[in-house]
Amino acid sequence: MPIIMISSLPHCSAEKLAEDLGSKTGWPTLSRRELADQAHAQGIKLGRIETSIIKKPINNERLAREKDIYLAHITAAICEKARDGNLIYEGRAGHLLLPGVRHRLRVGLMAPKETRIEKAIADLNLPREKVSSYLDQIDEDFEKWVHYVHRAEWKDPGYFDFFINLQTISLSHASELLFNIASLSDYCTTTETRKAMENHHLTAKAKLRLSTDERTRRANFWVRAVDGTVTVTYMPGQKGIDHAIIDVLDQLEGCNKVQCTMAETNVLWVQERFHGVDENFQHINQIAQRWGAAVELLQIVPRSELACDECIAAAANEVGNPSADSEPAAYTGGVEDDGPEVSSNDGGLGKVMEELVSIGRSGGGKTITGGSEEIIEAVKDATNCSLVVLGDIFLDKGREARKRQVRELSLNVRERFKVPVVTSDEIRSRFFFGPRQAVKLVTFALAAACIYAAVFMFQDVILNFLGGPMHQDAKVISAICVVLFVPFVAYLYGTVTGLLLKLVGVD
Fold first, then answer.
1. Which of 48, 366, 428, 435 is deepest in the core (most CB within 10 A)?
2. Is residue 334 in some structural domain?
3. DSSP for 209-242?
């Protein structure tokens, strides 16, 4: 039988629908509110995650880890509760949990605005004139939450199996309808779906253990469990942590084997300003996936900006250290570890690092001040680096000066560290197959085919030229032709085969 996941906007009576359905079926129920209380009791900084959807977080990488821990917590709790059979879960975005589990019924619930206003007035004891704007704001925050935590849009119909509008149906009839749908054979538990649940459960439990143990909680991991085998991939900069991982996961219920693998290499991405999940990010991520690599970020701050940064730091320090005569801090409402709100422009580093953490590709990141010399030193310190990508750097220079400095830096890094260096503009042509590469492939393939066809059609003439009577009269010309012809054909053939390998994704 199924797991019914009910998701709705706030004050849409989702909890009442879950209760009514539970009373009709006798199935256990679980709500996000219960899981949030449990998460808070276990030290998961849920308040900090929720605050991050309203104001920009100071440390996106840390928040991304805490978000992953929170998702692991609710996944483990749902799987544990549903271990013996059915479950009714009511939450913000339950329909986005447990991907791949086919016996879950993903239900969306919507209520008319006036109905939500009446319920909010009863729930919160607010005056009517304030409730409408309150609902608009909380809906906006709700959608930000779903986008931030699950990287999806709550209203996307592709994530739901069934959607209920309470404008045209009562709660009682809606629960009866859901019960009838859940009874269909499409949502019956099978061996395949049971295994998928077990894999989610074991993955979540392994993440929670690694995130709470002092030996491993600060490291970046990608964790996956399949049929009792837990695979943990860690970054090159955390070399030697595999023994701690094995110890932490020892005797984990359901775990038969632990496999620790280190990402084979690092891709170092150097920029002054990062621009989120843009085209360059997608290309670098694809390269990292091909190579089993981590992506290490290096933000370079020109010396010309140092004075401004120092002013910001001084202001932050002044706000963060009030005088003894200042008023006592106001009650925070339980939001943990939130310092004063200081404008912090990290050049997009935190946002990109957050994305890398969420997909298990983060090799860390840091910010340095200076120019070419400091970049070279940073490359020297990079762990197991196999590619350096030079993005938007030397932006305070003119176009020609910037190109010259990037070229000189690229040559310097190649010569000193024997590591490939590309600019962000070269990534597409060097590693990916596009329209220009297709034209080049067709042109070179036709040229190579014509040459081979000509050689086979005029074998007698060619052999005469290379070693027959004709050769005796033109030995020097024959030798020169061979010297020029062989490398040319090799270049054509190598280019064609290289483009074909690039077409199928082999570097």
1. 48
2. no
3. HHHHSTTTTTS-EEEEEETTEEEEEE-GGGTTTH
Dihedral, 273, 275, 281, 282 alpha carbons, nearest 10: -160
User: Which positions ≥6 away from 33 have C-beta within 8 Å?
Assistant: 15
Whether 418 and 440 map to the same domain: the answer is no
Distance CA 285, CA 307 (A): 34
For residue 332, give the DSSP letter. Answer: -
CATH code assigned at 152: 3.40.50.300
Residue 47 contacts residue 335 (beta carbons within 8 Å)? yes
d(CA 242, CA 231) in angstroms, rounded, equals 11
Q: What is the pLDDT of residue 173?
A: 93
120 plus 237 within the same structural domain: no
Sheet architecture: strand order including 29-31: 29-31, 87-91, 3-8, 104-110, 162-165
Q: At what angle do helices 128-150 and 60-81 cross, to 10 degrees?
A: 90
pLDDT for 395 beyond 60: yes
Q: Which long-range contacts (CB under 8 A, 24 or more apart) does 18-21 make?
A: 18/88, 18/89, 18/90, 20/171, 20/172, 20/175, 21/88, 21/175, 21/178, 21/179
Boundaries of domain holding 246? 220-262
Give yes or no for residue 337 having a pLDDT over 60: no
Check pLDDT > 80 for residue 252. Answer: yes
Q: Render the burial of 111-145: b for 16+ CB within 10 Å, e for the rest.
A: beeeebbebbeeeeeeeeeebeeebeeebeebbeb
Same domain for 55 and 17: yes
CA distance 136 to 113: 10
On whether the CB atoms of residues 182 and 126 are closer than 8 A, the answer is: no
Last residue of a domain, one of 247, 262, 277: 262
Check residue 18 and give its pLDDT: 93
26 and 174, same domain (yes or no): yes
Q: Do 156 and 243 sit in the same domain of this protein?
A: no
230, 223 Cβ separation under 8 angstroms:
yes
Region of residue 105 (left: phi > 0; alpha: psi -120 to 50; beta: else): beta
Kindly state whether residue 342 falls inside one of the protein's structural domains.
Answer: no
Number of domains in the chain: 4
Closest Cα partner for 207 from 321, 331, 72? 72
- The answer on pLDDT for 321 being more than 70 is no
Give the C-alpha separation, 451 to 496, whole Å: 14
Q: Judge contact between 146 and 96, C-beta under 8 A.
A: yes
Q: Among 399, 503, 497, 384, which Cα is nearest to 448's?
A: 497
Residue 339 falls inside a structural domain: no
Q: Within this chain, do residues 140 and 254 fall inside the same structural domain, yes or no?
A: no
Percent above pLDDT 70 for the chain: 87
